[in-house]
Amino acid sequence: MYRTAIEKLYRWKNAKRRKPLIIEGARQVGKTWLMKEFGRRAYDDTVYINFDSNARMAQLFSSDLDTDRLVMGLELYAGRKIEADRTLLIFDEVQEVPRALSSLKYFYENAPQYHIVCAGSLLGIALHEGTSFPVGKVDFLSLYPLSFQEFLMAVAGARFAELLESHDYPMITSFKTMYIDQLKQYYFVGGMPEAVQSFVEEKDFNEVRDIQRRILEAYEQDFSKHAPAGMVPRIRMVWNSIPSQLAKENKKFIYGLVREGGRAKEYEAAIMWLCDCGLVHRVSRVNAGSIPLKAYEDLRAFKLFLLDVGLLGCMTGLHQQTLLDGSHLFTEFKGALTEQYVCQQLKTIEDLGVYYYTNDRGSCEVDFIVDTGRYVVPVEVKAEVNRKAKSLRTYREKYRPEISVRASMSDYKREDWLINLPLYAVGSVERSRNCP
To answer: What are the residues facing 306 on neighbouring strands?
Structure first.
């Protein structure tokens, strides 16, 4: 399958001031595959080092971090010469040897000719716990489950994804039945690479569900294995509450749904742990519509979404028969799957700030507010063919954004102030996101 992140890796490789690269993302989103595939495509040789339970590497990095010495040790371990401009060095599960993370500073300062890519399933936690390496000495790349466009490439072929990227909406609309059918499948299958690969090969929804259950079980095992013991019950409670949080009409996270009488101070660390793992997206409220949105962030009010729409469906027991029931899938438990889907697509767009808006009275709520860096774009999500946009109109009258977006099952239509964007085209806006 094709991952668009590989294009970012090529840009990293060719950058004049290239730094060691850290790929962040949840377990099983395809970080190891991406690094190896990039090495296969872009380099003559790849040296892959997995630091998990690797006593020899722990010993190598335990003392002097002189880069010449480290390269010699890596060559002895790999059994071949490392040519700086021809070899990709991959450090996987690098958080298991914190001194290896620290060494990235010295590779950048003293041996920038080496091409080093790192990843780890719990790397976000290690970084936030203060693992030592200076900020500014490494580059970061976030990897998420497959977007709908990547899913289209894998299941239907690249031409249909390219058509979405072309923004030729008269042509796109003529194929809308196909796009809607594929979107239904994506709601069920999601974007976890193993689930997508299985679906491409077998077209078996039951097998997809089995894979998703195994992934969810692996995440729960990570809670017990890697989180502080006293925090594990709270992490489980927050994690298991997310479907019911999203089933509410107002999807703001309510601590009382985790446990009756629950308070923020009890669960803040658990939520942070899940965010650092890449397992949830935290979307904060803003109370104004001006750039930069970060300045108007209300840290007390937020929504929590899972990393993947397919995993959310698995947690809620969504049955494959729902796929056949017309548009019922898109309205399943108050449109939670649809809002999850839109959040997931927006999060895959690089450097996009994603928030939601409510006024102080709570009488106006816009599902997502996007900060492109140049414009603030309100996005209202409708699970069906729905042309009402009361909150969006109220928001526009107050803040006068250049353009507003309503994502729904309606066909593409541009009015004076509003773009109706079909749900299946939500993730295709990256190329033109800085244009009103």
So the answer is: 280
Whether residue 196 is predicted with pLDDT greater than 60 in this model: the reply is: yes
What tokens does 308 get? 């993947």
Q: How far apart are CA 428 and CA 436, in angstroms?
A: 15
Average pLDDT, the chain: 91
Residue 208 contacts residue 195 (beta carbons within 8 Å): yes
Would you call the peptide bond into 20 cis, given omega within 30 degrees of 0 as the criterion? no
Distance, in Å, from the CA atom of 123 to the CA atom of 103, rounded to the nearest integer, reads: 15
Please give the Cα distance from 45 to 23 (Å, whole number).
20
Structure tokens that stand for 141 in this block: 């790349």
Please give the pLDDT value at position 431: 41
374, 371, 341, 345: which is closest to 356 by C-alpha?
371
- Percent pLDDT > 70 in the chain is 92
Q: What is the pLDDT of residue 281?
A: 97
Can you read off the two tokens belonging to residue 69? Answer: 């010495």
For 169, the enclosing helix (H) or strand (E) is helix 169-174
Q: What is the pLDDT of residue 6?
A: 97
Rounded-to-integer distance, Cα 67 and Cα 110, Å: 7
The b-or-e profile of 338-358 (16+ CB within 10 A means b, else e) is bbbbbbbbbbbbeebbbbbbb
CB 281 within 8 A of CB 302: no
